[in-house]
Amino acid sequence: MLRSRTKLIELGKRQLCRSMCKSSELTLVEVDDKTGIATLTMNKPPVNSCNLEFLRALKSAMKEIESNKCSGIILTSSNDKVFSSGLDLNELRQPNPERLATFWKELQEMWVTLYLSNVPTAAAINGHALAVGCVMAAACEYRVMLPDFTIGIHATKFGYVVPPFIVNTYLSVLPHPVVERALLQGKIFSTQEALQINLIDEVVNSKDEALCKCADFIGSFEQTNPVARALTKRQLRAPFAKQLLEDPETELRESLEYINTPLFQESLDQYLLQLKKKNKK
Amino acid sequence: MLRSRTKLIELGKRQLCRSMCKSSELTLVEVDDKTGIATLTMNKPPVNSCNLEFLRALKSAMKEIESNKCSGIILTSSNDKVFSSGLDLNELRQPNPERLATFWKELQEMWVTLYLSNVPTAAAINGHALAVGCVMAAACEYRVMLPDFTIGIHATKFGYVVPPFIVNTYLSVLPHPVVERALLQGKIFSTQEALQINLIDEVVNSKDEALCKCADFIGSFEQTNPVARALTKRQLRAPFAKQLLEDPETELRESLEYINTPLFQESLDQYLLQLKKKNKK
Amino acid sequence: MLRSRTKLIELGKRQLCRSMCKSSELTLVEVDDKTGIATLTMNKPPVNSCNLEFLRALKSAMKEIESNKCSGIILTSSNDKVFSSGLDLNELRQPNPERLATFWKELQEMWVTLYLSNVPTAAAINGHALAVGCVMAAACEYRVMLPDFTIGIHATKFGYVVPPFIVNTYLSVLPHPVVERALLQGKIFSTQEALQINLIDEVVNSKDEALCKCADFIGSFEQTNPVARALTKRQLRAPFAKQLLEDPETELRESLEYINTPLFQESLDQYLLQLKKKNKK
């Protein structure tokens, strides 16, 4: 506890790293001068929904952080209610073919960049983390979450069949039978439920505490060799990323095909209609 | 609780669905008019042991239920002591080669039909579930069991080496180290032990309650898109069914070869002799 | 308890099996005449660190035990503080190429022999089990450990990237996310922590009790067919040993390449320096 508090003070002194100033406004990057930990804050109003531009900004920010030899990445949100609402469904609805293809490639690349990041990654989940929002959290090595929020992949509820790399992200964190049921039900977990199934590691009461816990986690690698660590991580995770590493074109084609089916388009329309009705009430 | 009770009343009103009347006497199929849930009752006296004809009846009943657009399948038994005792060992002992091949193909097809069923599947385990009886329960998406019964795959006790698709059924439900020990020991679990390792989801005190829990589970998919659900299920389970989907002939050949070894035939004889002695006492 | 105590007495009567007398002094093999269980005691002073000769002795002892139709193997240590400290790092530091290749092949063969042993294997962990010491324990089917010791694979702490067969040994026992974090952190678990994550099955208070528990575990297979058991084990474990069974040369080449990198050699030097400083204090 004392150690955490000391760290809290240190974190208060975080400064904007000069080399990071170029980061787009969609993402904010701060680097702690002492620890070398980069905090990557998602900052796309209103709810960090992932459109083409935001995915690109996220990927760039992560690549920049890695090339700057930071000691780790903490992923969090500037919105104190929503970590990320997932993909921007407008990108999927009646899509322009070219933009959709570019969009999906950015999703693939953002995911590979995060999932196989050379440095330790931790998610400070300070709001709801839905669909790809949950996937981003699950792609990190560690997760801490604030109470009274929700997290999960509810794709079957809007007629979406998640691609293998998303299944595999869940399988990196949860046992197979738990993944099966969660994906089939489109289950959204409360913070407490997420803790029970180990979808998250810990629950804390404030964003600052969450950032501290993430910093502690990244600090746990201090005595390890970073190259050996990165190679070991790649060895463990590469099998789950195999398709996207070796044949992203096939995954792209299959995903685009499915998104363009009338089945999905109609199901998506229905879902958006329901959401509208719900919001009006 | 209240909700479950209301459902209990509804279930009391279940009627024999007309389209289902053709189901053989070895299996009984009832469909709830309101929920669309089909209850498939195994009804082969005395203990639902799977011979050629019973496997065929099970497969046909499942295919019929799926083609009738039911909302889910509950698998249960008309015997209030035994869910299923597994394969009819008479099919394996000094077998007629042709019948054995046909028998094994039916086992493969029944398993694929159940394991990859498009609709939600749930097992109301109202008695002992041994060997393939356990496999059928584990191939469902959800399991609820009555107390004071047993469940497990005890193949090593009669010299049998379970084929990969049976290993994989266990692996769909249990962690690898648990599967290894259970299969090597030929472990039969009590209801309580099965709950502890999550081989079953819940324990209830009556068959009616079990059917209600299964109906609740199937109802949990109400707000999901059934096609997306089915495709997601197939995506998760197909890797475990790969051999039977792509090359059932090889699995058939390997299984027949093993069944015909003197090692297995002698071990089976010994086991049946022991059973006889035990029953005489 | 009573049963265990009776067994304790029986174990007290263990005699050196004549056929086993040839076992080298680096390993001691005793066979219980009644149960047929072989106790393989690692006996390389000071801390059972695995150099070429010791790996060879271990492999030979295991092969000898199997060919003598023993009913199972208990792996333990003659040192009451250390089960095994892992690989002898002198074999890896500025290595002679030929000796290193021979050494690594022996490691591969010892591992395959233990991991795929036809008979039940159990580890009585009566001291620290580090790196390959932990791997040997994890390659057994059952583990019981004494309190106040440590167990784990800390390879990332001396810049080592564990090869796939070592990752797979961990994955045979622990869930994927636990393996990832443990390997990346180079985590050494206390006895109590190891119990919590199921890296070990039980904690006992003396070596004798540990040997009894292991004997009980091996006895749990009494009613199974040993051939069916061995084939089932191979079926479950062979996928994890695939590379070493089918293409040990590639694994050898990759391992030797990594060991010879300046990255690893420097990291190892640093680590050994730290150890020296620590021991001087």
Q: Could you walk me through the main structural features you see in this protein, from its secondary elements to its overall organization?
A:
Three copies of one chain form a homotrimer. Chain A is an alpha/beta fold and 281 residues long. The first copy, chain A, has one domain (2-280): 2-enoyl-CoA Hydratase, Chain A, domain 1 (Alpha-Beta Complex), CATH 3.90.226. Chain A has helices at residues 2-12, 52-67, 97-115, 132-139, 164-171, 176-185, 191-196, 207-219, 226-246, 248-259, 262-280; strands spanning 27-31, 37-42, 49-50, 72-77, 82-84, 86-87, 121-125, 128-130, 142-145, 150-152, 188-190, 202-203. A six-stranded mixed β-sheet of chain A has the order 1-2-4-7-9-12, with helices on both faces. In chain A, strands 5-8-10-11 form a four-stranded mixed β-sheet. Chain A has a two-stranded parallel ribbon with strand order 3-6. In chain A, a hairpin with a 5-residue loop joins strand 1 and strand 2. Mean pLDDT of chain A is 91; it is low at 1-22. Chains A and B meet through helix 6 and helix 11 of A and helix 9 of B. Chains A, B, C: Pathway: Lipid metabolism; fatty acid beta-oxidation. Chains A, B, C: It catalyses: (2E)-tetradecenoyl-CoA = (3Z)-tetradecenoyl-CoA; (3Z)-decenoyl-CoA = (2E)-decenoyl-CoA; (3Z)-dodecenoyl-CoA = (2E)-dodecenoyl-CoA; (3Z)-octenoyl-CoA = (2E)-octenoyl-CoA. Chains A, B, C: Homotrimer. Chains A, B, C: Its main location: mitochondrion.
